[in-house]
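User: Small ask, check this?
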Amino acid sequence: MSVSAQHFEGGVQGGANFCQVDGDMNAGYNKLGFNGGIFVHYVLPRESSSIGFDLMYMGKGSRNKRDPQGYAPVLIYSYNYVEIPLYYRYVQKKYAIRTGLAWAYVFSSKYDDGGSAKEIRGLRSTDYLFHMGGEYFLSEQVSLFVGYEYSIRSIIDKDKASINVPMAQFRRNGVYHNLIQIALKYQLTK
């Protein structure tokens, strides 16, 4: 499928997310989540540029650090999303950078306060995110991806929330996904 330099590239990817949720009072990238899915790039006439999208499973959330001297329970928020990032990608020799926007749909979530899992009321079913990242090509078909993403709007509708959302982050009230993504990518097409 090639017209001059224009063609499609695609493959699979998977890795880990280091997550936090700004506004839920659990500071730090203490929650480990997993990611996996497929990617497709359309290489533009200028071969160093492409546009692309991923279809991903993204495990997100937050976790507080337990004080060994205290009696506070470990609080864990877990969110499971299907996410579609759309992005512009620029490749230069062994490196690539990308930036874009993503749409995500939550298909399950829970809040665990050390006793039992509870439903998170007020959680919006969709999330919109800004993301950016870079790749280092380990070989012609394998690359290491490191990315960052942040919610554009609060993931909790505070009028319907079952949790307190009092904190203002960067002069915005609400709760926002904030994560670092690391993945290995395997390109199936050349």
Notes: The CA atoms of residues 31 and 62 lie 5 Å apart.
